[in-house]
Each structure stands twice: as structure tokens, then as C-alpha cells.
Amino acid sequence: MDNNTDFKDLWKKQKVNQPNIEELLLKIKQFKKAGLKSFWITNVLLIATSVFIGLVWYYYQPQFISTKIGIVVTILSMIIYLSVYSKLLSSFKTIDSDKSNQEYLLKLIEIKKKQHFLQSTMMNLYFIMLTIGIGLYMYEYAVRMTAFWAIFAYGITLLWFAFNWFYIRPKQIKKQEQKIDGLIAKFEAVNEQLTSN
Amino acid sequence: MEFENIYKTYWDRIFRLCMGFVNDYDVAQDLAQETFIIVWQKLDTFRNESSIGTWIFRIASNNCLRQIEKEKRFPKSELSMNIMEEKQQSFEPQIQFLYQCIAELPETDRIIISLELEDVKQAEIAKIVGLSEANTRVKIHRIKEKLTQKFKENGQ
């Protein structure tokens, strides 16, 4: 078995089962549907959130400008978060898959690094905006409460945000970073195979 | 070329490339299907800058490289490994051994040797992978040596 043609011969003897083309076309159809579905889910979620907050605005008629700014900041934080995420996902789908392996690997590494940066930055921005938004939104109602209840309401809310900021957020970021760092390292190692001899 | 023709002409070759990369029949089948879905999506954008074969092999090998990410997400469990081995026992042991040896190579070497065994010209392989021709030739030579060595050790 030291002959080149023998390897080729063996290679081509591998059992192959070519599925019916109809089967593949069906898969393509499902694939298109799935893409459309996730597009709808993201957008419906966004619209529903905005409508909900819009209704709050309409029914409770906030008097203070702080409340209105709070509402806008809260909506904005969600919109930014969702749109950055869907953009990240689509950047993966549109990656040029007909480049050479080396160019493709470099692109994968670049996207993963961007994802790494965006995920932690976006997560921080999202939390900060949400905290500011809700803090501002609450002000109008807190002013109407007695001092005790106002402090109580703010206390609980801030405690909740502190828990998120100091516990949930770092944990989430760490988890994502570990995954992405592992992948970047792996892709870089594969790329190394091409650049070294 | 029409999609149906491409599919019929290239399915076997693409499947073997994927099989060389993962050495798992079901995963290879999925990878080949994904490749043709991408081909179907991108066929409009194909300009005759390269041959259609080079173009398709590029898509297929890149898709195999993407597979690395999925592997990280769903690591193979012991169980599925066992099932895999059982399934492959029906194949001729030599064929099975060749694919196993190839799947154990570094990722880019798997692609290079699979294309070579698929009778893709070395200049085309260089274009698919993104190496110089001289470099490709050296790599192919080394990989073949490695495979021959493994076959000798195994007494095949």
C-alpha cells in the first residue's frame, strides 16, 4: 500500500449515497422558511415591546420629562441590543464562502473577534441604558410616594440591577468569552497550518 | 451549468471530501447537503473567474472548516462514537482505515489530500486552499508519506 494510485482507488471506493434532488430541494425550502421565521420572531418581539411601552405612555400620561426620557432610553436599549445581535448573526450568514480556505479562515477569525468585542461592550451598554431608563421612568411615580416607599422602591430596583451587574453580567460575559476565545484559538491554529511549513 | 447537473456531477466528490474531513457518514451527508444549499444560494453570483469545480470545492472545504464551530457547540458524546464505529464495520476495512487516517490529520491537510485523491489538479488545489503551488506540492508529498507510513504500521 505504498502506491499513490492505490490510495486514489481506495478513496473512490467509499460508499456514497446520493440523495434524491427532490429531497435536497425540500431542505432548501425548509431552510428558507426557517430564515424567514427567525426574522419575524425578532421583529415581532421588537414591535410588541415598543407597542407595550407606547401603551403605557398613552394610558398613564406621564407628566415629567424624566419619565418620557426613561421610556425612550429603555426602548432604545432593547432595540440596540436586538439589532446588534441579529446583525452579528447575519454577518455570519453572508460570509463569503467561495474564498480560498486561508482567506475564509482569516474572515472567520475577524468575525469572531468582532463578536467578542461586541458581546461584552453591548452587554454593558444594554445594562447601563436599562438602569438609567428605568431609574428615570420611576422618578415621577416615586415623587408621589411617601419617602419610605420611594426609598424602598428605588432600593429594590437598584438591588436588582446590582445583582444583574455584579453577578449575572460577568458570568454571562465570561461564558461567552470562553466559548469565543476557544474558537478563535482553534481557527488561528488551523490557519497556522497553512502559514507554517 | 444548471443546479441539477452540478448536483449530480459533484455530489459524490463533495461527499467524499466531507467524509475525509469528519470520518462520520451522517455528519458528512449533512455537510454535503449544506454545501449544495450554499451552492444553490450563490449560483447567481458565480462568475467564471475560476472553474466551477474550484468554486464548489472552495465552498465545500470552507463549510468543513465551519464544522469546527459546531463540533465545539455539540461535542461528540461517547455514545454516538460507538454507534459510528458499529456502522462503519460494514465498510471494507482498508477504505475505513484510509478515511480514519485522513480524518486524524490536521484540518487543512485533510482538505488538501482529499482534493488530491479526488484528482483535482495541484494548481487548483493551491487556489482552493490559498497556498502557493510549490507549497501545495510539498504538502501533498508529506501527507502521502505520512499515510503510507500509517498503512505500513497497521500492516495493511
From TrEMBL, chain A:
<feature type="transmembrane region" description="Helical">
    <location>
        <begin position="145"/>
        <end position="168"/>
    </location>
</feature>
<keyword id="KW-0472">Membrane</keyword>
<keyword id="KW-0812">Transmembrane</keyword>
<keyword id="KW-1133">Transmembrane helix</keyword>
<protein>
    <submittedName>
        <fullName>Uncharacterized protein</fullName>
    </submittedName>
</protein>
<feature type="transmembrane region" description="Helical">
    <location>
        <begin position="65"/>
        <end position="84"/>
    </location>
</feature>
<feature type="transmembrane region" description="Helical">
    <location>
        <begin position="117"/>
        <end position="139"/>
    </location>
</feature>
<feature type="transmembrane region" description="Helical">
    <location>
        <begin position="39"/>
        <end position="59"/>
    </location>
</feature>
TrEMBL record, chain B:
<dbReference type="InterPro" id="IPR039425">
    <property type="entry name" value="RNA_pol_sigma-70-like"/>
</dbReference>
<dbReference type="Pfam" id="PF04542">
    <property type="entry name" value="Sigma70_r2"/>
</dbReference>
<keyword id="KW-0731">Sigma factor</keyword>
<dbReference type="GO" id="GO:0016987">
    <property type="term" value="F:sigma factor activity"/>
</dbReference>
<dbReference type="InterPro" id="IPR013325">
    <property type="entry name" value="RNA_pol_sigma_r2"/>
</dbReference>
<dbReference type="GO" id="GO:0006352">
    <property type="term" value="P:DNA-templated transcription initiation"/>
</dbReference>
<comment type="similarity">
    <text>Belongs to the sigma-70 factor family. ECF subfamily.</text>
</comment>
<keyword id="KW-0805">Transcription regulation</keyword>
<dbReference type="InterPro" id="IPR036388">
    <property type="entry name" value="WH-like_DNA-bd_sf"/>
</dbReference>
<dbReference type="InterPro" id="IPR007627">
    <property type="entry name" value="RNA_pol_sigma70_r2"/>
</dbReference>
<feature type="domain" description="RNA polymerase sigma-70 region 2">
    <location>
        <begin position="7"/>
        <end position="73"/>
    </location>
</feature>
<dbReference type="InterPro" id="IPR013249">
    <property type="entry name" value="RNA_pol_sigma70_r4_t2"/>
</dbReference>
<dbReference type="GO" id="GO:0003677">
    <property type="term" value="F:DNA binding"/>
</dbReference>
<keyword id="KW-0238">DNA-binding</keyword>
<keyword id="KW-0804">Transcription</keyword>
<dbReference type="Pfam" id="PF08281">
    <property type="entry name" value="Sigma70_r4_2"/>
</dbReference>
<dbReference type="InterPro" id="IPR000838">
    <property type="entry name" value="RNA_pol_sigma70_ECF_CS"/>
</dbReference>
<dbReference type="InterPro" id="IPR014284">
    <property type="entry name" value="RNA_pol_sigma-70_dom"/>
</dbReference>
<feature type="domain" description="RNA polymerase sigma factor 70 region 4 type 2">
    <location>
        <begin position="98"/>
        <end position="147"/>
    </location>
</feature>
<protein>
    <recommendedName>
        <fullName>RNA polymerase sigma factor</fullName>
    </recommendedName>
</protein>
<dbReference type="InterPro" id="IPR013324">
    <property type="entry name" value="RNA_pol_sigma_r3/r4-like"/>
</dbReference>
